[in-house]
């Protein structure tokens, strides 16, 4: 027996279980004699004894013994079981006494308080949310044991497999008890090593990048994904399977996962045994129609898969979606697209046939949503392209589930279909578990040119449960200060139409220049899809920009622009983007193209057309160990009725590595300060390769090589003296990068060397960028 504490006696759960067993024996003895002489009883009266808090009628209702009706001995045993299983009593006796049934009970005590001792890593509030035992509720031995198991699982999920929980019950008298969960947390159980067997096509290092779990490294005190979690293993197995299937390994299997404790019992060694199989490519793709009156030729236009490409389930699924969209436009609600795949093992190719068939006539009866306490139903419903009464499409339901999870509003989101009120009806159940979506961030930034800066940010991605994004950011450094407010409605008018509103106020002082700027303004925009990967946005921008504090030793051009005072810009513009990096058919390749123009002159002081464009391509090569990137970017500013101003010209900041901000471009070489004054045009090409350094993957360190070439040039006014060099001089640089992915943010170290430059350019051989959030 445990020692007394706080003046109350303590008893164990085992003792409580013995009380229940004694009650069962007593009940058996009480009516076993009657069973020997009669097979049934008739009770005209029911008497309850021993109850204190629970009403006699409630106890009789649990027993369900009808007055005046015959009941057998088995029926009395059932009544006993119902009373005992109610969790309200520590003992129960049924005593037949002639026409009276006496029910003797000893009530379970009431919980006075639930407490936790020994916990440091998980706070009381977190543990209270796990257990179901609560103050002022009836004590239940079974529930206490279940709560102890739930606390143990919570610690296991947090990576503490060695945690132990022992429930204790303290008698406080007056049929009240305190429940105390005594916890020994133990140390974090980490994944000491992740290894693979059976993999020939991809290295262990590449496969570790696929898994959500990570090996424990020298940052084990900070990183969380190296904590062992048994539930994460199943998720990792699915990640591995998806990885291989997307690369043509249609027979891939995870055969087993060996989990071995380290000798010190504080870590696990996980070994994934896999069978890769062969990687298949597409040989031929065709469409056949088995639906009367449907022409397959129209659906062949939806095929983007070409012979010779690696097989990908995503490519097949995307093609089916395109064909189903064609069917909907033709009013064929129940057309089903069935992919039929024929293997050619000798050539490691596949023949894919998309068969157009007539599917079953099934409709969506209703969509039920549960678990969303904050998020409005309509935010979840608009992720469905299907509404009540529409034909049921299993593929669309799966895609809706993915869209709901992509909102990132929920910890879990399960979408399932079940039989409705008729054989041709289904009910779609959506069960979500909300998670916090707001954040208050305090952080720091650093760069060689700007120094240290501080920032504070407040954001909410599900504002008032409407799915809207709201943020406010304030940052400041030695020379620069900026603030901004952003509001985004992703489903304006309940359509796939994104509305955005931005406000900003920025100041800069002497950032490698002898002048200051002050900028504030607002932008309102709309963005919508125009193709599978393309989006078009339109916007209006109104701003006021001021150049001031120009040094007397600076260029005459800048002094003349300062004399103009604040310049108001009123512009409308558009931007188009085409992005296959997310959702593209090839997981190893991605292409991004952006093009935009702003037309200023709808009022204000500036009349100009500003055009910018960017094309970027990324591919993983050498068995996906090396990432290759290529970018081309350019811009042009054309003015009308006046000269371009510094506040609107291109400076080339960050465009070419190896040069300081304002380090390239047109410059007044005759001025004492030799100011960079910006240019009307810029163009740059960047090449980069990122590769492993042979270090353990959990360190998050990779290397890179880069080469940049480009220029900033062109002015409307060279101060009338021709002393400003605004010609197109190519600059180039090469360098080495060290990428470090840390739990506190991504770091990048650039070591560069300028090759082609002008005598007045300002170079920068090293740059470090830090972005952290706490």
TrEMBL record:
Q: Which processes are annotated in GO (biological process)? A: Gram-negative-bacterium-type cell outer membrane assembly; protein insertion into membrane
Show the Pfam families listed in the entry: Omp85, POTRA
Function noted in UniProt: Part of the outer membrane protein assembly complex, which is involved in assembly and insertion of beta-barrel proteins into the outer membrane.
**HAMAP family of this UniProt entry?**
OM_assembly_BamA
Q: Which family does it belong to?
A: Belongs to the BamA family.
The record describes its quaternary structure and partners as: Part of the Bam complex.
Q: What is this protein called?
A: Outer membrane protein assembly factor BamA
Chain's gene name: bamA
């Amino acid at each position: 027996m445990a020692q007394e504490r706080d003046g109350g006696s303590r008893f164990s759960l085992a003792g409580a279980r013995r009380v229940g067993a004694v009650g069962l024996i007593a009940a058996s003895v009480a009516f076993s004699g009657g069973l020997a002489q009669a097979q049934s009883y008739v009770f005209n009266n029911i008497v309850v004894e021993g109850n204190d808090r629970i009403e006699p009628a409630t106890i009789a209702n649990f027993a369900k013994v009808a007055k005046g009706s015959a009941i057998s001995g088995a029926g009395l045993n059932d009544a006993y079981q119902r009373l005992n299983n109610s969790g309200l009593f520590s003992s129960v006796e049924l005593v037949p006494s002639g026409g009276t049934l006496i029910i003797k009970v000893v009530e379970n005590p009431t919980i006075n308080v639930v407490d936790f001792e020994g916990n440091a890593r998980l706070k009381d509030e977190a543990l209270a949310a796990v257990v179901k035992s609560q103050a002022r509720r009836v004590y239940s031995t079974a529930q206490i044991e279940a709560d102890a198991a739930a606390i143990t699982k919570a610690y296991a999920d947090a990576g503490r497999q060695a945690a132990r929980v022992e429930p204790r019950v303290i008698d406080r008298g007056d049929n009240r008890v305190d429940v105390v969960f005594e916890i020994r947390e133990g140390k974090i159980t980490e994944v000491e090593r992740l290894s693979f067997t059976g993999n020939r096509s991809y290295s262990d290092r590449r496969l570790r990048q696929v898994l959500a779990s990570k090996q424990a490294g020298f940052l084990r005190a900070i990183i969380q994904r190296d904590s062992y979690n048994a539930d994460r293993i199943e998720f990792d197995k699915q990640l591995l399977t998806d990885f291989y299937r997307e690369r043509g390994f249609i027979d891939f299997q995870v055969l087993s996962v060996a989990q071995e404790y380290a000798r010190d019992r504080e870590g696990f060694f996980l070994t994934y045994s896999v069978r890769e199989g062969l990687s298949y490519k597409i040989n031929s793709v065709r469409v056949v129609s088995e639906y009367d009156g449907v022409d397959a030729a129209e659906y062949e236009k939806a095929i983007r898969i070409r012979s010779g490409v690696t097989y990908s389930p995503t490519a097949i699924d995307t093609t089916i979606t395109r064909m189903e969209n064609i069917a909907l436009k033709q009013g064929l609600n129940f057309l089903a697209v069935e992919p039929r795949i024929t293997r050619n093992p000798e050539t490691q190719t596949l023949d894919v046939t998309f068969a157009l068939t007539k599917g079953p006539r099934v409709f969506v009866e209703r969509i039920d949503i549960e678990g969303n306490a904050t998020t409005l139903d309509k935010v979840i419903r608009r992720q469905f392209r299907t509404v009540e009464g529409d034909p049921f499409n299993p593929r669309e339901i799966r895609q809706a589930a993915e869209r709901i999870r992509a909102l990132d509003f929920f910890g879990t989101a399960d979408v399932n279909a079940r039989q409705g009120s008729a054989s041709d009806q289904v009910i779609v159940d959506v069960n979500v578990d909300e998670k916090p979506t707001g954040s208050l961030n305090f952080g720091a930034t650093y760069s060689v040119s700007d120094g240290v800066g501080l920032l504070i940010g407040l954001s909410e991605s599900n504002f008032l449960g409407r799915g809207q994004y709201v943020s406010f950011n304030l940052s400041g450094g030695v020379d620069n200060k900026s603030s901004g407010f952003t509001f985004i409605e992703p489903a304006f008018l309940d359509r796939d139409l994104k509305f955005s509103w931005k406000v900003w106020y920025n100041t800069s002082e002497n950032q490698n220049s002898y002048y200051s700027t002050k900028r504030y303004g607002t932008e309102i925009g709309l963005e919508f899809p125009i193709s599978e990967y393309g989006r078009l946005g339109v916007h209006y921008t109104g701003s006021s920009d001021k150049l001031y504090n120009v040094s007397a030793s600076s260029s005459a051009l800048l002094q003349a622009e300062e004399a103009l005072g604040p310049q108001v810009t009123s512009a409308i513009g558009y931007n188009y983007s085409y992005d296959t990096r997310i959702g593209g058919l090839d997981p190893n390749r991605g292409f991004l193209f952006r093009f935009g123009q702003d037309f200023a002159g709808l009022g204000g002081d500036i009349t100009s057309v500003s055009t910018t464009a960017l094309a970027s391509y990324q591919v993983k090569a050498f068995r996906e160990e090396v990432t290759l990137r290529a970018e081309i970017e350019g811009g042009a500013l054309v003015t009308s009725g006046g000269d371009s101003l510094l506040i609107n010209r291109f400076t080339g900041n960050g465009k070419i590595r190896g040069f300081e901000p304002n380090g390239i471009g047109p410059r007044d070489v005759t001025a004492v300060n030799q100011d960079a004054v910006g240019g009307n045009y810029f163009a740059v090409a960047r090449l980069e390769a990122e590769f492993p350094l042979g270090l353990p993957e959990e360190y998050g360190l990779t290397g890179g090589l880069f080469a940049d070439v480009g220029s900033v040039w062109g002015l409307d006014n060279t101060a009338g003296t021709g002393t400003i060099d605004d010609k197109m001089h190519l600059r180039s640089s090469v360098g080495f990068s060290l990428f470090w992915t840390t739990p506190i943010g991504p770091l990048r170290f650039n070591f560069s060397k300028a090759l082609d430059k002008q005598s007045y350019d300002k170079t920068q051989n090293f740059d470090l960028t830090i972005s952290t959030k706490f």
